Amino acid sequence: MFSKFKPTWMVDAIYQITPEQLAKHGIKGVLTDLDNTLIAWNNPDGTDELKNWLKNLQEAGIPVIVISNNNHHRVRLAVDKFEVDFVARALKPLGKGIREGVHRLDLSKDEVVMVGDQIMTDIRAAHRVGIRSILVKPIVQTDSWKTQFNRFCERRIMSYLQKKNPDMIWQGEIK
């Protein structure tokens, strides 16, 4: 039952995922959540680390599309400065936004990965569409009020999954 929430990989931070690691797994495109994955939910400016990560992927020819449940205006304000495409109102954990992202990338599902900080939305949506997923730790430990209930449920699901799957440990890279 909870296997639908199990990520393919667990990495400490999105910035640790390199083009070389992605290529090793045949990944040619990245879909990513926005809040607490790329940027702190309460600070949309991003960091130099984020800008360097996006630049490295761009130079490697790996496109990035942000998949967010936020409205169009909020997502556009956050990502315009990073020059990446986005899908707003993605309706995660449903697969709508991820399917749209895969379609825009014009890649097969085997060549795409979803990166996010929530198992109940990002990872579950990736499973629904049939793509691999990378769970990352949230950038900041606080959440908007809308996310706090999910975090409560996620702690219980993660505890169960990690008991059943001792290989579910945080890594410094995707292996």
From TrEMBL:
InterPro entries per record? HAD-like_sf, HAD-SF_hydro_IA, HAD-SF_hydro_IIIA, HAD_sf, PGPP1/Gep4, S-2-haloacid_dehalogenase
Q: Which UniProt keywords apply?
A: Hydrolase
Superkingdom as given in the UniProt entry: Bacteria
CDD domains assigned: HAD_BsYqeG-like
Key word Hydrolase present: yes
Q: Which Pfam families match?
A: Hydrolase (PF00702)
What's this protein's name?
YqeG family HAD IIIA-type phosphatase
